[in-house]
Amino acid sequence: MTEADQHLIVKMVERIDRLLSEEREASRVSRSRTHERLNEVIEMVAHLDKQVAVAAETDLRVQAQIKALTARLDAIEPTIEAWQDMLKAGRRISWIVGISGLLSGAAIWAGLQWFGDVVVATVRAWLRIP
C-alpha cells in the first residue's frame, strides 16, 4: 500500500466520520423536536382534560338547577291552575255584565221612546191638537 492510497483511505474515513457526525446531529435535532412536540401534545391533552372537567361540573350544576325549578313548578302548578280558573270566571262575569248593560240600555232607550210618545200624545190631548 502506498502513501497515496493511505492518504486516500484517511480522507475517506474522515469523510465517513463527518457524514456520520452530521447524521447524528440531524438525528439529535429531530429527536429534540419530536420530544418538544410530544410535550406540547401532553400539555394540550391536560388542558382539554381540565376543560372537560369544568364542562361536566357546569353541566351537573345546570341539571341540578333544572330539577330544582321543575320541583318548584310542580309545587305551584295547582296555584297557577286556580289563578287561571279565576281569570276565566272573571271573563265570564265581564261578558255577563256587558251583555246585561247592553240589554238594560236598550230597554231604557225603548222605555224613553215609549214615554216620549206617551208624553207627546198626552200634551196633544190636553191642548186638543189633532
Describe the structure.
About 95% of the residues lie in helices and about 0% in strands. It is an all-alpha fold and about 130 residues long. The chain starts with a helix and ends with a helix.
Please outline what is shown here.
By secondary structure, this protein is mainly α.
Give the amount of beta strand, in percent: under 5%
**Structural Rg:** 53 Å
Ends apart, CA distance between termini: 170 Å
- The best one-word shape is rod-shaped
Number of alpha- plus pi-helical segments: 1
Fraction of residues in helix: over 70%
Total number of beta strands:
0
Q: What structural class do you assign from the helix and strand content?
A: mainly alpha
Name some characteristics of this structure.
rod-shaped, 130 residues, 96% helix, mainly alpha, 1 helix
Architecture blueprint of SSEs:
Elements: H1 3-127
